[in-house]
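Request: Show me your protein:
***
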Amino acid sequence: MKQSLLPKDFDFQNSIPLWTLDEARTMISREFVFTDFRQAFEFMTLCAQRAEEIDHHPDWSNSWNKVAVHLSTHSSKGLTALDIEMAKAMDLFALQI
């Protein structure tokens, strides 16, 4: 069974307010919308570099100016600090573009 490996009282709303937590607390999701494909691709490139650095890779898809992201730590079968770290990095990258 999947579960959150974060503390039960972890404050998702305060930590990553733009992300949606699934009901089972096993995945967080967000859709990023940019002006055009170039910006979406630039965002994905920055995220891919960070994902390689921390060895934590998102499940994501791209359609022109949109990037849909789902984060979960598959090896732990739930949410971990790596998911929160990656979400925060993605939020910062989106602001830079």
